[in-house]
Write a structure and sequence with these properties.
With about 120 residues, the chain is mainly β. About 0% of the residues lie in helices and about 50% in strands. The protein is built from no helices and 11 strands. Strands 2, 4, 5, 6, 9, 10 and 11 form a 7-stranded mixed sheet that branches. Strand 7 and strand 8 form a beta hairpin. The protein starts with a strand and ends with a strand.
Amino acid sequence: HVQLVESGGGSVQAGGSLRLSCTVSKFTYEPNCMAWFRQIPGNAREGLATFDIGERTIRYADSVKGRFTISRDAAEKTVFLQMNSLGLVDTAMYYCAAVYAPCGGRLTEPEFGFWGQGTQVTVS
């Protein structure tokens, strides 16, 4: 059963940067598509970026395009989310997600079957 563990969250001043990590383990074969989401209490999870391991394609939501960068270290089985120019609106719980299918255009919560426990990012 796939396990996703996020790390790297914390508190940062507006304009600052953070890098989140998501390590994938306990799988027979690696999920095709990895993604980052975030959630503010009372709101649905917002898809931010996807990384298709097989197709080597990346997609971003408009809300983070140009500020956030998703990347992967294949050897470490880790996916990263580099977040720059952080603003108050970026305060949220950030989640890593995975699915055994090509990313395609998927970027909504129901399209992903595996989730990490989340890491809090607070911008002040």
